Amino acid sequence: MAGGVAAVDGVRPAAGDPEPTGTDLRTVGIEEEFLLTDPHTGVAVPAVHQVMEQVPAELRGQVQHEFQTSQIEIGSPPGLELSALRHSLGLLRTGLADAAEAAGVRLVAVGTGPVDGPVPPVVDKPRFHEMIDRYGLLVPGPGNNGMHVHVGIPDPETGVQVLNHLRPWLPVLHAATTNSPFFAGADTGYASWRSVEWERWPSVAPTPVLDSYAHYERLIDQLIDTGMMLDEGMLYWYARLSANYPTVEIRIGDVCPSLDDTLLVAALLRALVATLIADVEAGRPPVRVDHHLLVAAHWQAAHEGLEGNGFDLLDGGVRPAWHLLDRLVGRVSPELDRHGDLAEVTALLDRLRRRGSGAARQRATFARTGRLIDVLTDLADQTRGADQPRGADRAPGATGSGADRGMED
């Protein structure tokens, strides 16, 4: 999320740092990671340095390297208005797509590369090399590309309690963001193969139940002491406190193919966090969720996606994933309305229902043409966005600096 300089080791938020909005509405910011591919073969290309050289100066503060040289990342400024978020992310996606094209490659919003090819090297940073030396090649493909959503919180103690309350709600949003069914030239049978690959890192897991912010800090220190993490930046829980800002950071999803998909998930997560903050302040306890059932619900989300079934962690049993998503929308509708997002979310949900998840769209394209390069072409078009034509003028104001980035933090 833009607004500061990316921290390698991270600085934990001070207990007294409030969300600096001057309102009880919640800010939201988004990070998106993309794959760089050969436009003719679809193979992931280690071209991040060439693409970075082509990024316009006014956008560079919100663009940076990711873990592998076939990946690149953007971060939006935090804000209150979805329209402003759409504007800034649209400029960034279009500007980055143009930069990639100028460098002879293509920008694709996909969870992991669908076409088989050589594994691109990691970016030449000491920390990344240390991670490979310590943990081995845990990412054997062209890169894991996710979306991270930051939502403002009043203080870390409240944030920790929000993390507890979030646990049963995240699997269905995991399902809604599935966008990586293909890997190494084949359909994996999963809607999100990125999730399967991502689980290889030792610190990737659902967020545990936390007693307090002190407990959160103590766990981080102990996990570093064990050697399971090099530093706080490797805390890859599905939701965590930002190391740099007064936000909770939700990091379960594949990068979404289109900006509409991204904004829908961001709006739902903002409304969900706002709803849960009210629960925390009212003294309502979180729903008790068995850890193994939570793991199972996330596995099912990655496997089935939005078009299949999900496990209902609130009352048990298997339900259609859309049923669970509709229930979440009903739960957070008052906060969607209070933040001015209800009408747009209603329209975006209707569009998602008609078009299907990213995984479903990829499979539909492949079923129609039988060619993965056509899947990537369609994804590249969605990444750029129909409302952002090639060479579109860039409005001023999309400046800032990167932070809380992917594998780096």
Summary?
This protein is α+β, with helices and mostly antiparallel strands and 409 residues long. Helices cover 42% and strands 12% of the residues.
Explain how this protein is built.
This protein has helices spanning 48-54, 82-102, 126-135, 156-166, 170-176, 193-198, 213-226, 259-281, 291-304, 321-338, 342-355, 358-369, 372-384, and strands at residues 28-37, 63-65, 71-75, 106-108, 146-152, 182-183, 186-187, 239-241, 247-254, 309-311, 318-320. It is globular, with a radius of gyration of 20 Å. The chain is built from 13 helices and eleven strands. It starts with 27 loop residues before the first strand and ends in a 25-residue tail after the last helix. It is an alpha+beta fold. Strands 1, 2, 3, 4, 5, 8 and 9 form a seven-stranded antiparallel beta sheet that branches. A hairpin with a 5-residue loop joins strand 8 and strand 9. The model is unreliable at 1-22 and 387-406 (pLDDT under 50). The protein has a single domain, classed as Creatine Kinase, Chain A, domain 2 (2-Layer Sandwich), CATH 3.30.590.20. Helix content is 42%, strand content 12%. Its EC number is 6.3.2.2.
